[in-house]
Amino acid sequence: MTPLLIALSALLAFLLWNQTRKVNGYLRRLSEALLNHDRSALGGEPFDRAPPAVRELERHIFEQLFETETLERRVTRREDLLGAIVEGLGDAVLVFDQNLTIRFINPSASNLFGWDSDSPPLDRNAAACIGNIDLVGMLEDCVTHGRWENAEITHSVPGESEVGRRVLEVDVAPLQRDDSGMVTRARAVLHDVSAAHQLEQVRKDFVANASHELRTPLTVINGYLENLLDTELEDRDMSLRFLGVMRKHGERIARIIEDMLTISKLESGFDGIEDKRFELRKCAEEVAVRLAPLADAKDAQIVLDIPDDDEIAGDAFYWDQIFFNLIENAIKENDAPGLTVTVAMRRTGKYDEIVVADDGVGIPKAALPYIFKRFYRVDTNRGAEKKGTGLGLSIVKRAVEAHGGEIRVESTPGVRTAFVINLPGQGDAPAASATRDEAEGQ
Ligand code: ATP
Ligand code: MG
Questions:
Q1: Does domain 274-442 have CATH number 3.30.1540.10?
Q2: Tell me: the pLDDT tens digits for 119-133?
Q3: Angle (CA) 30 33 38, round 5°
Q4: Which residue of 15, 23, 55, 291 shows the fewest CB atoms closer than 10 Å?
């Protein structure tokens, strides 16, 4: 072999070695970029001079990484969106596995079960954390039998009173199964339907109470009618007496119906309420005059502590009803002579405060939460004569609310019973509707 051939062979070997080294370098960089999902490691100086096959490979990897990144971003966005929806859901959501181990809960579930949202009971057993046998039974049935469960259960929220027991519509369904069909993940969604239940109960009570209240005077009227027919009106005095009783009960039926219509009108957001300015003192004076015979018969006194000429904006018709019912209640419920009923008004800037107070027997503490409910009467044995319908205070409350105000009651039996009405301060405001809108907007 000539020296020239040897030199050429060495040069060739060197060039081959050098090329292989460069290609290896490119491939190493490509593989690192792929491994680290790093598009920035590609392109630029070294690859500009790379062989076409390597550049082609680089372009493919670059595109692949770009697509993967876009896909990852889309998945993350969707996950974030779903997460935000489930997190913000009013319904409680719970995900658990075949051993009832809790895998996910949203904040509503934490609230419902009284869990600390900073340290939710993830990876703990649902049966041990959820203090509700019915619900745990449903979760067990779902994972054991692999079926969808739906039922209504009652639930006491920890820390809330028993009175506030919630009614929950529970929906439990499998989410994932293994190859043998066994449930490996399931979810429970708990929807609070207490408000709908309460509304339904109120409706039922209303129908039952209204029927009961109307049936009593109707039975009396029918009884006297039978008597009249039996006696064939022979005894004129007795017939007149019977007719008198019938008229009284007829009037009672008419009043109940009228009261129910007033309540329904006020409850249906009726906006035909007037907002004229009128003198509150005059309105209370008129009521006091009408109730004077009842007050005199019981030796009761009605004291008005309302500034002269002080006007408020509102509907005088409803203020007449408010005062009449509150003052009549006080007199009606007290037989002992010497009762004083005071009607006072103070303007405090933010509120106009109107108070109807008496120093009579008062209202037992246990009855106070129910006093404004329709048909509610305090159960006393103070004689059937006092028996009203129990609609008066319902009307008062709704009428006050229609004026944008609030009413509350305070009672110390035998000392002082006060119905306190707070109206949005009117000062020189022109109209009730304006102040009402402001109050609602607060
Ligand atoms: P209605 O007003 O429909 O004729 P009512 O007077 O019985 O019937 P409300 O005005 O709603 O019904 O009052 C409810 C109950 O509240 C009354 O039955 C009474 O027992 C009690 N009550 C209201 N005000 C007083 C009061 N000032 N002192 C004592 N008890 C009161
Ligand atoms: Mg009354």
A1: no
A2: 889 999 999 988 899
A3: 150
A4: 15
